[in-house]
Each structure stands twice: as C-alpha cells, then as structure tokens.
Write a structure and sequence with these properties.
single chain, 252 residues, alpha+beta, 40% helix, globular, binds zinc ion
Amino acid sequence: MLQHLSQFELADRPGMITSHSLDRGPGVVVVVPDSPAAAAGIRPGDIVTAIDGRALPPETALSASFDASRAHARADSVQDLLENTGTRRFTITLLRKDSILVADVIPLPACPSHAHLARSNQRNAYADGRHVFLTTGLLSRLDNDNELAFVIAHEMAHNILRHATIMRGGDVKHGLGRTLGRSGRIIRETERTADALGGAMMLDAGFDPVRGAAILQHLGGGDLGLDLFAAHDSAGKRIAAMRALVSARPPR
Ligand SMILES: [Zn+2]
C-alpha cells in the first residue's frame, strides 16, 4: 500500500515530508505479509522512485491545495505502472534512508479492486469500476466482520462484473424513474448478480453471507440499498438469496 503527498492537506504535507520523504515519491505504508512485495524485501518507509526502470513523474502537489480528483489520478497513474507489468518479473527502485535499492518483484494474479475508507457521515459504499469505497458513516454501523465483508464483496463484485460500464451505457436511464421499467430491470439484475458473486467470494474467504447480509436490515427500512445504483430487491429477499446460496454450496 502506497501513500502520496497529494493525498494530504496542505498543512499536513511538511510533516509527511519530514517523517516519510513523500516529496521524493510514493511511500510504502503497509507491506502485506507473504505478498510479492514482502518477498522482494520491500519495507514500510521505503520510497518508490521507479517501476520497471521507468522513473515516476515528479510529485507536483507540493504547494497545490488538496484536490480529490488530482489525488486519485496520481495514485491511479502509479497503480497503472504496476498493473501494466502483468505477471512478468519486474523491478521497483526504492529509496531507503539515503540508499537506492532495486527490488526484484515476482507478481501474482490477484483481485484488481482496491478498497478505501472515505471520511463521510453518509452511510454508503460504492464501486467505480476500479476502486471500492466505504464511508466511515457506514463502517460505524457495522456489527461484525461478516457485515464488512458483505459490503466490500458486493462492491467488488460490481467491479469484477464491470457493472460501471453497463450503468454508463445507453440502456440505463438515470434520475427519476430509473428504478422503473427496462432500466429498473437491468439495475436490479446487476444487483442480484453482484450479491451472488459477492456471496460466493465470502464463502470462499470463510465468511458467512447470511450474517453479512443482516446489515441490510439494520440500515433501516430495507429501502436504503448499498451503493449508487440503488434499485435493489428488499432486504428480506436479498438475505433469503444468501441463505439459498449457502445451502447450495456443498460442505467441504
Ligand atoms: Zn450494488
């Protein structure tokens, strides 16, 4: 996991430069144990200066005020360089203290979605095709890890199934009336398939989709669906679908 100077408010940047040298490049915050990064010897505190021999664009956010779209674009462009290496071996050039190191990375195929926590009182979660966002408002309402896994798995399924592309296409009307007729049918169908794939992923990861889907009930009224697409079956129907999914899965 990397952090970028452009993701911080202006007032916080001098501190991040002093403590993490983020003016030199993206900083490694967390290295997942047993990941390709860990195997390559990358450590928290390292600064990434080049990927596969290509120098990263200079950090230009030094004096520009915080702008979410600029911060996202910067993080995505670095992510693109990592993802473009595909599954072949590549190098990451790092700055550690004042030394330059070259880490040899052997990638593994993995989930293409990144999950983020967004600071907001709104209770929501959404997927944009690449990232999954969950608000602090929703997080504070979750009772257990099954519920958290349900939210993330559902949104991740939207990304894996490329639903953002369908939603942007001409077949789906937005605004008033979007839950009716043909648009409503398409949206409800994407929601059902996201629940089904999300539930299957939860089972694979050892979570309980039925207990996870209980979040739909305590979000109040059952009408408050997750994410921006917002045309869902009732909470009861969605929980019943999770129950059917669990009983259809043969015991291990
Ligand atoms: Zn959804």
